[in-house]
């Protein structure tokens, strides 16, 4: 019998991406930039988007992590520090300016809603242009737009793309107190294969600090002593004991580098660590490596110790 030849059509796996929604958030824009052509699903909160990955309902989640005006997004730090570990495998940075949306034909603006980070970035504009409107926090910029459609609010400070999703009109566009504001977004997934080192990477960790004085400085010394530059450090309450904090630390480098391996083992000996990922920096900034603190220096030092142990050197 003629041997049957079977061809398997190339199966292109479409990734399921959860993102902080609803539709029309800046995070949706970031998800489309990081995962073009994948299957995107909005979730009302950062925590629910992360939980979708933990539950296996999504392969990855796109969430906001920090903003150049208002700092970190606490819900993201808290959502990554507890529960099954998730690691960042990619990031993107978006320039942020807002549209103020209202219902067509509506009258006086008495309330204006948005994500707290958005309200903080347009505070001066609101005071100048909508002085009689009361700012109201909503779960996201797009949730604010939904609230305007539903009559809960009179206006929303939203992402420019929100106008494509909701039957509203633009009261103002290009609104931002700080002209070059930016927000960084992460794509996170369950631990697995790491992105390859690029020389321009970021590694993130959460250090669950013990309540001993000097804990933070002990951690920072392990990095500074190896010439590793921090790019961010934030403290968040553990919510267990008053005054007890976790430290979220980002630094230049990739966990696969010998110099970073040396630092991470030292950090892990000092306190409980959670690895939050090593991935390329969206800004492409290469790591600054001090004289004597490069990967080859660490490899050479290890080779010397190996020779000593074999009685082949001293
Ligand atoms: O609510 C959104 O649209 C988000 O994606 C979070 C956010 C809020 C404000 C600035 C940047 C991102």
Automatic annotation (TrEMBL):
Pfam families, sorted: ACT, PDT
UniProt xrefs under NCBIfam families: PRK11898.1
Coiled-coil regions, chain positions: none
Lyase in keyword set: yes
Annotated positions for site Essential for prephenate dehydratase activity: 183
The keyword Amino-acid biosynthesis is annotated on this UniProt entry: yes
Pathway(s) where this gene product acts: Amino-acid biosynthesis; L-phenylalanine biosynthesis; phenylpyruvate from prephenate: step 1/1
Enzyme Commission number(s) from the entry: 4.2.1.51
Domain Prephenate dehydratase as annotated: residue spans: 16-190
Organism field: Amycolatopsis echigonensis
GO MF term (any one): prephenate dehydratase activity
Name assigned to this protein: Prephenate dehydratase
